[in-house]
Amino acid sequence: MKIAIPSNDGSRMAEHTGQARGFIIYQIFCETIERLDYRVVPELLSCKHEPCYLSVENENLSCSLPSCKQDIIEPDILQSLIWDCDVLLSVGIGPNLGNTLTNSAIEMIYCQEEFADDAVAEFVQGTLPIFDFSRCVLTKEDFNEADLNLAIA
């Protein structure tokens, strides 16, 4: 089994897969973990912004965080970097990349670990805390007014 983890520095998990500078690739055989590669996203292929959906009033785009205004790499380009992987461990995946990966054989698993090595080790041991949602695929229906005010504070 091969596992991909988005990362900006080759060590920590990137918070937004669509903005990651690369993917750490691991090979799992039985319970043995081998780090195979760090596949870097070509910078010139960064080309558009994918909206964040974090507003009760505006369902189009409303996130004012500077980190969410970065360029997003085309989903097909990212998918082509991890095409041979079985699992993607991620903190957040936007809707475009999420749809692209849903149509592939890559299973998306959401977690909140800081370091990629820790996430893979916990995944193999069966102790990785897994979330049912991506932090990047949230709509206005996912929040009530109190949640939104707490997230902004």
Radius of gyration: 16 Å
| Strand arrangement across the biggest beta sheet | 3-2-1-6-7
How much is the average pLDDT? 75
Oligomer: single chain
What structural class do you assign from the helix and strand content? alpha/beta
Please tell me about this protein's structure.
- The chain has helices at residues 75-81, 95-102, 116-125, 145-152; strands spanning 2-7, 22-29, 32-40, 46-48, 72-73, 87-90, 107-110.
- The protein is built from four helices and seven strands; from the N terminus they run βββββαβαβαα.
- 28% of the residues are buried.
- The protein has a five-stranded mixed beta sheet, sandwiched between helices. Strands 4-5 form a two-stranded antiparallel ribbon.
- The protein has 153 residues and is α/β, with parallel strands linked by helices.
- Strand 2 and strand 3 form a beta hairpin.
Name the features.
globular; 7 strands; disordered C terminus; 4 helices; 153 residues; alpha/beta
Secondary structure layout plus pairing:
Blueprint lengths: L1 E6 L14 E8 L2 E9 L5 E3 L23 E2 L1 H7 L5 E4 L4 H8 L4 E4 L5 H10 L19 H8 L1
Quick recap:
The chain is of the alpha/beta class. 22% of the residues lie in helices and 24% in strands. The longest helix is centred in the C-terminal third of the chain and has 10 residues.
